[in-house]
Structures are given as C-alpha cells and as structure tokens.
Amino acid sequence: MEVEESVASLGQAYAREVRWAQGFRVNIDSRLILLGIRRLLSCKIISDGELRAAAFVIGCRLGAMDSYESFDDGLAQGRDVPLAFAYALPSMPLACASICHSLRGVTYTVTGAGDAGIRAFSQAAALVESGAAGMVVTGCWESPSATAGEGNASCSLLLLVLEEEEVAGSDAYGADDYTGPPTMDEDAPTALTVQSSVAALKRFLARNSIAAPGASFHA
Fold first, then answer.
1. Which helix (H) or strand (E) covers residue 34, if one does?
2. Residue 157: strand, helix, or coil
3. What's the start-to-end Cα distance of the chain, in Å?
C-alpha cells in the first residue's frame, strides 16, 4: 500500500477517511500512518481482527521533523510547546495507531538514514520466520522537513503485510534457494544511496523480487 500526499491533501484525506475524533491534534506523521492503515483495511488487505493482533515494524529516516521544528520555533519565541516535543518522538505514530485501533501486538519503529525501511522490513521478516509473530505490518514513511529544504515535498508511506504462508512447502520469498529473511546487500549498496527511505525500500524489494507494493505479501 502506497500513500503519497501533500501536507494539505493529507489533512483532508485524514479528516475524510480516518474519522478519529480523539486524534484531531495529531501531527502529520501520525496522520500519514493512520491514513495508510485505514486504506489497508478499506482495500481488505488486512481485517480488523488481523490488524489488532499483528505486530508493526515500521521505519522512518528522520522521525517527525515537522514536530521537531515546531518545538524549536516555540523555544526560539519563548513559548512552551510540550505537545510538539511529544509528537516528535519517532514512536508516536505507532502509539497513535495502537490507541486508535486497539492494537495488541508489538509496535517497533526503526529510525536512521535511507536504509530505515530496509532494516524494518528485514526485522519484520525475521519475526515471521521465527514464529514470534504470525503477521507483521511493515514498511516506512517520510514527511517533509523545512530544515532540510523539503518544505514542498510530499508525505510518503509504503506499507506491506507479511504473514505465514498457508501453503505447505511453498517458498517464502519466491526463490528456490531461500534460506532466511532478506538483509541489506553490503556489496551492492545502491539502495542506501537514495535519500528517501521509501524509495530505498522500493528499490530493495524490486532488486530482490520480494513483493509488489500494493498487495499483501505471504511469507
């Protein structure tokens, strides 16, 4: 499931599709994650019951830069903005998702550079392979940063659903020589040179012939 929205259109889509009354003040990162989850449900990629029981492992390159910047602006102006500081925490979007959807599974946010989504996917695959989780929602997101000169950039999200394969003896990743969850290819780090973690994850998936974004992936 891919979501690509401007900040303005994200706010409109969030209000129209998510309709979470208690979440009217959440930041753009949380709105992006909540919108993506709502669309996973709307497209029937995952059911409500499966969602509540699933684990979540999602990556982000920088965290909630919009909230960091709001907090810094407030300090510069001598204002206290504790809500902006709280929302700046990278784990906040999944915390909001846990409250909104009554999630019972583990939620884990991976942060870092352009490889955050790849690391999140690999850890999610390891959870499924080990039997620690029967289903994992994974992927990564990004929102624009004015500090980094991305003020006009879109908000981007890529979500995939990994679950145990129901057909006995089938290949987890579509390769006959599959031996475990995919890891970053240190000898061919082309994906890591892409600044966007969403673009890096898409290139990683394509290079390894793992899954096409937009559909559930049975592992």
1. helix 28-42
2. strand
3. 17
In terms of DSSP bridges, do strands 55-60 and 107-111 run parallel, antiparallel, or are they unpaired? parallel
31-65 b/e with 16+ CB inside 10 Å = b? bbbbbbbbbbbeeebbeeebbeebbbbbbbbbbbb
- Tell me the pLDDT tens digit for each residue of 104-137: 999 999 987 778 888 899 999 999 988 899 999 9
Residue with the two structure tokens 């390894």: 208
Decide if 205 contacts 2 (C-beta within 8 A). no
Q: Which of 101, 112, 97 is nearest to 142 (CA)?
A: 112
Instruction: Extract the tokens encoding 9.
Output: 């259109």
pTM, full prediction = 0.77
Question: Residue 173 has which token pair?
Answer: 């990743």
